[in-house]
Every structure is written in C-alpha cells, then in structure tokens.
Amino acid sequence: MSEIELKNLTIDFGGFKAVDDVSLTVKNGEFVVYLGPSGCGKTTTLRCIAGLVKATSGEVLFDGKRVNDLTASERNIAMVFQFVSLYPHLKIRENIVFPLKARGVPRAEIARKLDWVTEVFKLGDDLDRYPAALPPGARQKVALARAVIRDPAVLLLDEPLSAIDEQFREEMRWELGHLQRQLGVTTIYVTHDQREAMSLADRIVLMNNSRIVQVSEPDRIFFDPVDVFAGQFIGSPSMNLIDLVPVDGGLRLGDSGVTLTAAQHDLPAWALGSRRPLKLGVRPLNVHLVDDAAQGVPLEIDDVFSVGRERFFSFRIGEAVHQGVDKRASRTGAATRVRFDPSGLLFFDAATGRRVTGEIAA
C-alpha cells in the first residue's frame, strides 16, 4: 500500500488544461472517489497517477518518491476500466493468474494467491467457466481479482460499474466497498455517479472545470458545500437555489414579491442586513408545505407528487421551479404556504458562488 501525493499537478493538451494545478494527498489504505461531470479532469488525473498520461508540470509521489518518470509497469499499480477486457479464450482461473504467469512467478505462489483471491471474491464456482458464461457483475469481479492478485500498491478504478446493469450495480457497489476494506489497498475511484461516491468513499474529491472544488467526507460535502456547484451537484433532487434580493426590511425571494423579515423568519442577522445579493441554498428535505397561515410564506404551488414513500411538491418563484417534501399528516385542502427549515439554510455570494457564513463586504 502507498500514500499518493499530487503537488500542483497540471496536464495541458495543446493549450487546453485538462487538469489545472491540482494538489491532494491520498492516505495509505484510503478509498478516495473522484467525482464530477464529464470532462472535468478526473479520469485524466487517474491516468496520470497510473503513468498513462504525462504531467505537464507538478509532481506525482508514491510514499514520498517522485514517480513522474516511471512507466505504468514500474509504479506497481493495478487499474480496472469501465469496460472489462478479459481473454475470452481463457477460463476464469487462467484470466486471473495471467499477470503472475507473465512475470514468471513460481507455480506454488500462483496457486496460493489464486486460492486467496478466489476466497476473497467468492469465485470458486466460476474458475472453470469462460467469461462469456458469466453475468456482467461476475465478470467485473474477475477483473478486480486479476488486478489485486498482483499485490498492487495502488488500485485505480475508472467507472468500473457504469457498464453494469442497474440490478447488479447496487450489489457490486456494496461488495466493492467491503472488498476494499478487507484488502486495505489504497484505492482511487473515478465516477460521475454521486450515489457511488457517497456510498463508497472515505473522502470525495469533487472536480469541475479541471480543478478541485472540494475534498470532504461524503456527509460533509452534502451538508457543508463550499460553493453553488458543490451544493447543486451533490444530492438528488438537487439543492434549491433561490435569489435573495436586499430590500428595506429584509430579503426578497427572487421575483416572488415575498420578503423574508426578521420578525417572521429565524434567519442570521448578517444575512438579513446584507446589502449585496445572495443566493439561498436549501435542500428539498428542508422545505415543507404547511397549512398554518402563521407559518411559512405564500408561494405558488405547482404540483404534488409521490416518489416511492416520499411525497414531493414543486413550487415557483418567478419562472424558477423548486422542490420540497410534503410531510403533512393530513393533506385535506390545497396548501399555499411554504416553510424553509432554518437549520437547513445555506447562503452563497450571488456574484462568486462561494459559500458565505458571515457578513460580506459591500
């Protein structure tokens, strides 16, 4: 196992910075997930760590040793890609031990390691089958077994579950997390799927536009985003973002004509007194329908609908549509008031998008 350190890593493709001044330390045995939209630089970063892409500037270090000039084979890494490439003419046992045979490892050692990974990955019933006879999830487990049988210092996974049907993906996600903890290998996982990131990661590295936006534990990145992008990218349904316009006596909710005042709402004094436009960030789970005229604010309710056991509603502020959760025990009559839970309110600078937790300069 290795500690991985990226120092001011930049990767430039003909004038386009695919990775722009990225620094990060991945601790020994840690499971780190790179998350972000397509084209944000996460896979390019992974391939640079693997030695498949050369850094334009900056350093990649394994246990403090600079590895920029080492080839992929010299870095003792194992990599599993989105689309599994097993040898179709070889049985599963032959696919798994292929890297060891290629390195000339003695037969007794190969047999010992095959027994070990067969037990870890529960592949005993599949060893004498061919890849085509296995379901997608089992083929991906074989690819992982082939990767870890080499005892790599680092395991790199590039969207390994995205090509698997949804019915297998949930099971594989659980198994992958369990296996990583059992193996203790330093693991970097790339995905655009926030559910995978939130369920697997010790820490999430959120990327956008070739740079790191935030590095946090999953629950913290959900509840404590550093900017508008982090707040909206994490969470489903997405965080509501509502313009707050400073007016006499409080903050107006966008174009709604509704003003939040100190007398009616438990909001921070610095926010109510702000003379600069803000954005209010509030997750749907912190927005509720209420029947009591003394609570909430009057807003246009667009629709009420159910998703599984949850009952959601949508509401309008100007042309923007937002969502909340209807937790009323009794739903007789049409509610027209919306309550924002004070404990779930976040504020962002409307100009920069950065999180604001205190007074900002005028």
What does this molecule look like?
The protein folds into 2 domains: 224 residues, 3-Layer(aba) Sandwich (Rossmann fold), CATH 3.40.50.300; 117 residues, no CATH class. It is 25% helix and 33% strand. The chain has a 6-stranded mixed beta sheet, sandwiched between helices. Strands 13-12-11-14-21-22 form a 6-stranded antiparallel beta sheet. A hairpin with a 2-residue loop joins β1 and β2. The chain has 9 helices and 22 strands. It has 362 residues and is an alpha+beta fold. 35% of the residues are buried. The model has no long low-confidence stretch (mean pLDDT 89). It starts with a strand and ends in a 6-residue tail after the last strand. It is elongated and about 80 Å long.
Descriptive key words:
362 residues, alpha+beta, Rossmann fold, 2 domains, elongated
Low-confidence stretches: none
Give the assembly state of these chains. single chain
Fill in the CATH topology of the largest domain.
Rossmann fold
| Overall radius of gyration | 25 Å
The CATH C-level name of the largest domain is Alpha Beta
Beta-strand percentage? 25-35%
How many strands in all?
22
Could you estimate the helical fraction of the residues in percent? 10-25%
| Global mean pLDDT | 89
Largest sheet: 6 strands, mixed
Q: What is the domain tally?
A: 2
Helix count from the secondary structure assignment: 9
> What CATH architecture label of the largest domain applies?
3-Layer(aba) Sandwich
**Largest beta sheet: strand ordering:** 6-7-8-3-9-10
Structural class: alpha+beta
Q: In whole angstroms, how far apart are the ends?
A: 50 Å
Shape designation: elongated
Q: Which superfamily, in CATH terms, is the homologous superfamily of the largest domain?
A: P-loop containing nucleotide triphosphate hydrolases
